[in-house]
Amino acid sequence: MRSGELEEKGTDIWKLFREAQQNILYLNKQRIMAKEELDRVKREKISLLDRIEQLERTKLINTRKDKFSISAELLLRIDAMVLTSLIGSKEASEFRRLIMDSNVSIADYFSEIMHKQDTELLVELRHFSGKSRKSGYHVIHVCTEMAPVVSVGSLALYVTGLSRALQRKGHLVEVILPKYASLNLNEVHGLREVDAEFHSYFNGQLHGNRIWTGVVYGIGVTFIEPLYYSSFFSRENIYGYSNDFERFSYFSRASLDYIVKAGKQPDVLHIHNWETSIVGPLFWDVFVNQGLEGTRIMLTCQSLESQCVEQPEKLALCGLDPHGLHRSDRLQDNHKSHLVNVLKAGVVYSNKVIIMSSMQTKGQIINATIHGLEPTLTIHKDKLVVAPPGFDSSAWDPSVDKFLPQNYSADNMKGKSACKVSLQQHLGLQEQASIILFVFMGSGQTPGLNTAMEYFEEELKDENTRFLNKYDEALAHLVLAGSDIMLCPSFDDTVLQVPLKAMRYGAMPILLNSTDRKSGHFVDRDLEGSKFSGYVKDNFTNIPLSQAIDELKNNPSKWDKKIVDAMTKDFSWDAECCDIHISAYAAIKNL
Predict the structure, then answer these.
(1) Residue 104 confidence (pLDDT) above 80
(2) Domain with 144 in it
(3) For the chain, percent helix, then strand, then coil, each to nearest 5?
(4) Claim to verify: residue 356 and residue 442 sit in the same structural domain
(5) Is residue 28 part of a domain?
(6) What number of other Cβ atoms are within 10 A of residue 213's Cβ?
(7) Which residues does 471 contact at the CB level (< 8 Å), separation at least 6?
C-alpha cells in the first residue's frame, strides 16, 4: 500500500475514533440528562400527589358534608346569636345540648340551610328540639397552637389530633386561639367575623375584642383579636418576646370573658403549658360563679422546662390578687421566692394535670431535677396523669398512602419491596442493597446529634446510607415505607413522631447511640407506665444497631414476626392517648 493511501487510511481511522468519542460523550450526556429528567419527573410526581391530596382535602371541606364541620359551624353560629343578643345564654345552652344529642342527625338536617341568616337559622333550631342529651363531654381548649392553622411544636399536633379523636368518640370539642397575624387561614373553613364586639378586663380597664370563627378538621375554632392591644399578636413569631406574660395573660382572660359572654357551659376547660395556665386561678377566683359551676379545669404540659416566672404585681393586670397568690402553696416560685411561677399556677389550680411523655412514668417525672417543680408535683401527685402522644393514622397508613408507588399492609407486605426500590432509585442508592438506614432529623437542631453521628459511623460503615437533615413531607412517607430500620434520636419524639410512624410502616425504630439506648432501662414497668412504653421496652429499647442488622440478615422469620406485630398495634390519637384523656375528664367531672 502506498504511503499516501496509508496516510489517508490513518486519517480516516482517527476521524472514526474522534466520531466514536463524540458519540460516546453525546450518549453519556444524553444518559445523564435522561436520569436528571427521570428524577425530575419522580419529584414532580411526589409533589403532584401531595397537591392532589391537598385539593381533595379542600374539596371535602368545601362540600360541607362532614357532620363534625356542620356541628362545629352550627355551634359557632349559636355563639354569634348570643353575642348579638338574638338569644339568651339559657336558650343557647339548650341548643348546644341538642347538638350533642346522639339520637339526632344534625348534619343531615342543617347541611342545606347553614347559608341562612341567623334569624332564619334560629327558627329552625327552635323547631328542632325536644331530644335528650348524650353522654359525651363538652371540651373547650384554650391554647396557643393548633395544626395546621398555627404550628410551632408538639402542642399544635396534640390539640388537633386529640380533638379529632375525641369528636370521633362522640364528644363535643371547641378551640379558642389568638388571632395571630401569621395564621394559615387557608386551612380554616367558613372563616367569618362575628358582627359584635365583646369586652375583656385588662390593666384596670375593659378593652374591646373582635371575634372570628371558622372550622378546622370539623372542629369549631374561635379567634380572639384584641383591638386596643392589637400589637400583642401581630408579630412575626408566636413566642419569644419580653412581654409574653402580658400577651398570653390577656388572651387567657379574654377567653374566659368570651366563654361567659357567649353563654358556654363546658364540662372541661382544657388549658396548655404556661401560656394559658393563668386560666386556672382566674377561673376559680373570678369566673366560677358566672354560670360555670359545673366546669372543671384540665392542664396539659408538653414540657416542664418552660414555666415563665414574673413579678407578682403583674398578676393584677388580668384581675388577680398578687398578695393572695404570692404564697408557697399557690404561685410563689419554689426557687425564686420573690417571683411567681405561671406554670405552677396551672398545676395548683387545675383538677387534673396531663404530662405528655412516651417513655417516662409519673414517679420519674416528679423526681426529675431539671424543672424545679418537684415539691409542687409531689403535693399534687394525685392530679398527675402521664399520657403518650399519638399520631394521625389516617394520614400515615401504608395501606392507603397516596405517596407510595405501591401500598401494603401487615397482611400483605409485597408493596414494601416496591417502595424500597423506588426509594433507592430516588436517592441514587444501589438497587441490590438489602438494607436502607436513615437518620430523619427534621429541619431544626437536634440535641446530641454530633455524638449520635459519631456512634453511627463507628457502628456501621456502609455506602448505602443517606442522612436526611431536612424534613420533606412527601419524601417522609417514602422513607418510612422503603426503610427496614429507622434511626431515632429519642423514643420520646412528640414532633416528628418517627418511632410511631416507623412501626406503622414496618420499619424497626432503633435509638441512635448507646447513651440513649441505655435510657431504656429507666422505663420501669410500674402501674404508671403506658402501654406504648412497655411495648417499646420489650421489643426495641435495648436492641443495638448491629443486633438489628444481624437479625434482619440471618433470622428473617423472627424479624418479620416482630415487624408485622408492630404494624398491627394502634398507637394513634384514637387509642391509648384518647382513652387516658377521657378517663381524666370523667374523674374530674365526678369531683
Answers:
(1) no
(2) 136-390+580-589
(3) 50, 15, 35
(4) no
(5) no
(6) 22
(7) 440, 442, 443, 496
Residues 128 and 165 in one domain: no
Are 212 and 355 in the same domain? yes
pLDDT of residue 64: 42
Whether residue 348 is found in the same domain as residue 438? no
The share of the chain scoring above pLDDT 90, in percent, equals 50
Cell of 239: 413566642
| CA–CA distances in Å: residue 219 to residues 68, 77, 118, 495 | 7, 13, 20, 21
Per DSSP, 120 falls in state: H
Please say if the pLDDT value at position 107 is more than 80. no
**Residues β-bridged to residue 296:** 268
Domain boundary among 105, 132, 159: 132
What is the domain count for the chain? 3
Distant-in-sequence, close-in-space partners of 475: CB < 8 Å, separation ≥ 6: 46, 426, 468
Q: Are residues 101 and 157 in the same domain?
A: no
Q: Which grid coordinates belong to 569?
A: 398495634
Evaluate whether 312 touches 326 at the Cβ level (below 8 Å): yes
* Residue pair 249/318 in contact by the 8 Å Cβ criterion: yes
* Listed range (90-104, 270-284, 543-557) with the worst mean pLDDT: 90-104
Mean pLDDT estimate for the chain? 84
Model's pTM, two decimal places? 0.81
Q: What is the CATH number of the domain that holds 240?
A: 3.40.50.2000
Q: Please check whether residues 423 and 338 belong to one and the same domain.
A: no
229 and 378 fall within a common domain: yes
Judged against a pLDDT cut of 90, whether residue 203 lies above it is answered with yes
Do the beta carbons of residue 170 and residue 134 sit within 8 Å? yes
**What confidence tens digit (pLDDT) does each residue in 433-481 have?**
556 666 554 544 454 555 555 556 555 566 656 666 667 888 889 999 9
Indicate whether 443 belongs to any domain: yes
pLDDT digits (tens, 9 = 90+) for 519-550: 444 444 445 578 888 898 888 888 888 888 88
Q: List the grid coordinates of 182.
A: 401569621
Q: Is residue 17 part of a domain?
A: no
CA 536 to chain centroid, in Å, comes to 21
Instruction: Record the cell numbers describing residue 460, joined without a space.
Output: 456501621
The predicted structure's pLDDT at residue 591: 78
Residue length of the chain: 591
Residue 33 binned pLDDT confidence (cut-offs 50, 70, 90): confident
